[in-house]
Design goal:
heterotrimer; A alpha/beta (458); B mainly alpha (294); C mainly alpha (325); A: 458 residues; alpha/beta; D-Maltodextrin-Binding Protein, domain 2; 4-stranded mixed β-sheet; disordered N terminus; C: 325 residues; MetI-like fold; two-stranded antiparallel ribbon; disordered C terminus
Chain lengths: 458, 294, 325
Amino acid sequence: MAARRRVLASIAAAAGVAVLASGCAGAGGGGGSGSGGSAGSGDADSINVVMVNNPQMVDLQKLTADNFTKETGITVNYKVLPENDARDTIQTDFSQQSGQYDVATISNYEVPFFSANKWIANLDENIAADSAYDQDDVLKPIADGLKGADGSQYAEPFYGESSFLMYRKDVFDAKGLTMPANPTWDQVAELAAQVDEGQGGMRGICLRGQAGWGQVFAPLTTVVNTFGGTWFDADFNAQLTAAPFEEATKFYVDLVQQHGEPDAANAGFTECLNAMTQGGVAMWYDATSAAGSLEADDSPVKGKMGYAAAPVKETASSGWLYSWAFATQESSQKKDAAWKFISWATSKEYEELVGEQIGWSNVPAGKRSSTYQNADYQQSAQAFYQATEAAINAADPNNPGVQPRPAPGIQFVAIPEFAGMATQVSQGVSAAIAGQQTVEQALEAGQPLAQAAGDANK
Amino acid sequence: MTTHTNPAVAATSFKGGRAKKRRTPEQGGHPAWGIAAWAVGLLFAAPVLFMLLTSFHSETDAATNPPSVLAPLTLDGYRSFFAGQPWPPLINSLTASVVSTLLVLVLAVPAAYALSIKPVEKWTDVLFFFLSTKFLPIVAGLLPLYLFANSIGVLDNITFLILLYTSMNLPIAVWMMRSFLAEVPVEMMEAAQLDGAGLITMLRSVVAPVALPGIAATSLICFIFSWNELLLARTLTSTVASTSPVFLTSFATSQGLFLAQVCAAAVVISLPVLAAGFAAQDKLVQGLSLGAVK
Amino acid sequence: MTTATPAASELTPEQRTTYQAPQGQAARDKREARRRRIPLLPALVFTIAATQLPFLATIVISFMDYRALRPDQRGFTGFDNYVQVFTNPAIRSAVLTTILLTATVVIVSLVLGTAIALLLDRKFFGRGAVRTMMIAPFLVVPVAAALLWKHGILNSGYGLLNGVLTWVWGIFGSDSPPQPQWLSDYPLISIELSLIWQWTPFMMLILLAGLQSKPGDVVEAARMDGAGSWQIFRYITFPHLRRYLELGGLLGSIYIVQAFDSVFIITAGALGTANLPYTIYATFFQQQNYGLASAQGVVVVIGTIIIATFALRTVSSLFDEETGR
């Protein structure tokens, strides 16, 4: 008996696919020309774009109709989703090549295996034909992360980021504390204890605790790296229960439990951003792209922030490297329109448009060196632009820790199994932060999952 | 399927005390009971009222502790909701709900007729087969549905969603309609037939008075379930055929505070169901109990 | 209530709805039987097609190594996926979570629903208004309700619940009210609270209908005979309500076992709240392991069939007028 409601499998078989196919063609309401279902639906001069709902993308959505569509006549249908949903949707759609979306935001995590499987289009020809785009202006570590194993460019960055430590300079000054320019994690833990006012008051530090490989494990993996740990040794043997991984995780969980934000097990980037802007925490270790929101005109903490390098222990630097980039689905039948969109959204001109219309602190930065030469940007991002550029350039995805790695990635391991596996493991860590279990239990449960993922790549 | 326990017992409908004299409510008693009832009612309505109030607040006033009940009202939440292109998903939801409800009726009413007024052999087995399909988790069939839709090119297609909603609601509708049609006085039908009344006359004078309230209740329930559905729409649609519950999940942005916006969106999207439900409270009960409680 | 399930042969001819073939007219009977089947067929064929066939596909995929992210390694693997289903502790905990969640929500909403139905069965000022207020939670779109609870009510910073605690403590002059971190400290209870809030009105509606169909004359007669309120409740009202309680419990279970929206939105399956629907969804969507997701689906369906066998036994007696008494 059955799984229910999966309607049609049968209907099509019995009643003939033709009925359905004809029923579908015009059905989407958009007057789609339904090209056999393998391309994005809708008109030839419209494309479907799926992206995460980060502030920079929301700005993009607002600016599209009056600028891009006006210039090119191409309508852009956006699907904007929270990060975890967006990733699930993109993976499913691209791995099936169902072509519901022509363009998607992916990152330097997905590009290596998406390109190897030919799920995303090679952009080299488009780039070569478009000299105004100025590919050489793209920061090298960022551009390299978006290349396939064949050396071709498969995605173009919308914004790039590393991680650093943000703190309330005014609070530190009032308490007579100083933040070193290159702090160690031990110093940060001590400072967190000193600025912590306890429950109800300002807490020491915000660290992501929400489950998800892109949530808690983004900052946590950088802590693991600098504590001398790693997900896998060079032969893909999982190292979750090895001493450095455990020590780093314990350190992280203890710090967030003792001096972290309230409701830490549910706090991700958004919650921490809110806590920081609302004065709920004195420090925050997270993406460099957060600084734009903290220094925005309507931010209550504008001008009160200081920025220091990502805290370290055994390595010289520990910041992550990440970029949200646009890629075209291989099965898309609107690749030209897709490139027009991508080249517009990731261009210098778009950055200027945001600077003029929304504000220079909102520019999707961290991807082009020209951004950092721009006087307007320098002025508005005075507090953090140098720290950001330095952090991005210091990041080395191929050698982020103290031992050789089997696959690239700082705060992730660029293998297809990592996202699903690390998300499962992260649920255990999140539960440990909530006090439901110990770090040892979480990592012991995670070790076999990680080993299975490693085995798939041996 | 192995589940039919003997259905025959279900032959009679669940009339409860319907035939008996309806009792007036328990008389008066202590005013404390009334106060208690009001207190409980307000407690349950409080989150809804809070949602309504918050939807008219600014984001800053929405995020205070304790809540700023007396904060100035504003339409900002609604403005940003309607600025986010909510119409396509709202129209899709409406289309999917209304069309699938009509389809359900077209299929369910004749089926219910064949299970009550002129029953087929082993009709109880059939009836329980319908119900048994409701026990199965939708999620277990999500994958073949997705792969199938992808292979014939009906992902992100409202027609496909409509068919799915039809199959989702059909079993409930068959049960409900059957329990209503079981009340049709067959003797009267036979008498009318003997008198030479035509089929139309008979349907109008004997069947319709019993069936119409049933159709109303069935429609209401099917409409609500289709309107509320998330999992299928989330998985099988993208930009063109997306429905309002899916739209709602993407509404919590990562840009600062958003509670007022979410509340405004929740109010607008719940409005059709709230309106329909309030207007037809009795139908709601009948529908939810698969017609068992009239 | 005894679950009486007599065989069909025990039925009396008076049960008009049973088709009785007159004797000695085999051919005409057949034609008549066929004619009667016609209106049923479209719905039946549609339901079978929509529910049975795709499940066959699920079964086939469940024996495959089908990981969407590894298109190069596709093929049949026998029972590997099933071995994983039964050895993975995450699935076991999902089963427990599903049972706990369903049982808690159904029982608590039934108890609350009964109590509130008894209250609303009395005459008092504004009865209609209170009933309308009570129904409201059930009419909020589940996704909206889940978002409202997550961000508006349970949020530890500015949620309504902690806001009310601040108020109440403020009244007594305290400025350090307890501020529980609901979503971290009580994640499953948080989900249960939101579901109970939505489902209590449903139970209340069914039980109120039950109460209002209670034979008034019997109650009056009992009162004349000097029976007290408790006795009336214990010996007349409660036995009468019993079938309605079972009906509410059954229907509630059908829907709450499948609860996906609230888990998806309130906790995204974290902190031990992943129930079966969410777990399968995550295997499918997050891990992109289609073979394993299908095997999980097959196991869940088999489990459901076993439980449904008992549940349908109950429902068949529920819908029988005589056995309830």
